[in-house]
Amino acid sequence: MKGSLLYEGKAKRVYHTDDPEQLILSYKDDATAFNGKKKESFPGKGRLNNLITSKVFQSLHQQHIKTHFIQALNETEQLVYKTDIVPLEVVVRNKAAGSITRRLGISEQTLFQPPILELFYKNDELNDPLINDVHAYHLTGIREQDLTLIKEQALLINEHLSSIFQKAGLELIDFKLEFGFLSDGRLVLSDEISPDTCRLWDLETGTKMDKDVFREGIGSLTDTYERILQRLEESVCAK
Ligand code: TMP
Ligand code: ASP
């Protein structure tokens, strides 16, 4: 069933399958930050991100969000539809943290109402620069109506994700999404949604429970991700 390696990224490997429309994503134990400048391997991280992403995508399916996700295959791998990925990182911010605090001098925790949506051009050599819509049309060839759809979906997904995480006792501070086109031309949510790609703060204590524990060296990555998975399992099962 699992075919040859198609692509290896920083956190996942992508494999062909017998079906040309489907791929297997294999989550690695590696964690990187600052465009790969900080790197470490954490046994068990791949399992945690695979299981967390699978749970989150299933919850989004219940809210009728269209994604590339088909099913988890085992502890570290999932089956997805093949998409032609739009090379954009779509970031939605509910509160200030990370790059926006440095770039614009905004204090951490500042509330954004409405949420701020930012586009970054997915290009490691250029360090994923912040771009505007016209840059995106030029650099990625995306059409105006598809970019509008991406933004609408990202803000809707923000509402669903905020609620999913709130039920797990977590505040969704910000997150990054990627979108891709299926072979029939439909645009769907792709990639992963995990503590690697979201900032999640404990609702009661404000403790950081995401990749910032690794970026800032303030805690155990796997213990933190294990707690996120447990909380999601408890809150999804309790529904
Ligand atoms: P930033 O504050 O560094 O711009 O990150 C915003 C959000 O996007 C945060 O939740 C982490 C996530 N993110 C990724 O998933 N991949 C990346 O390469 C970067 C820079 C951020
Ligand atoms: N994902 C990026 C990297 O691997 C940056 C980050 O998440 O902080 O370097």
Automatic annotation (TrEMBL):
It holds the Pfam family SAICAR_synt. Its EC number is 6.3.2.6. GO terms for molecular function: phosphoribosylaminoimidazolesuccinocarboxamide synthase activity. Pathway: Purine metabolism; IMP biosynthesis via de novo pathway; 5-amino-1-(5-phospho-D-ribosyl)imidazole-4-carboxamide from 5-amino-1-(5-phospho-D-ribosyl)imidazole-4-carboxylate: step 1/2. Signal peptide: none annotated. Residues 5-231 form the SAICAR synthetase/ADE2 N-terminal domain. It comes from the Bacteria. The keyword Oxidoreductase does not apply. Keywords: ATP-binding, Ligase, Nucleotide-binding, Purine biosynthesis. PROSITE patterns: SAICAR_SYNTHETASE_1, SAICAR_SYNTHETASE_2. The keyword ATP-binding applies. It catalyses: 5-amino-1-(5-phospho-D-ribosyl)imidazole-4-carboxylate + L-aspartate + ATP = (2S)-2-[5-amino-1-(5-phospho-beta-D-ribosyl)imidazole-4-carboxamido]succinate + ADP + phosphate + 2 H(+). NCBIfam families: purC. PANTHER family: MULTIFUNCTIONAL PROTEIN ADE2, SI:DKEY-6E2.2. Belongs to the SAICAR synthetase family. This is Phosphoribosylaminoimidazole-succinocarboxamide synthase. It comes from Halobacillus kuroshimensis. The gene is purC.
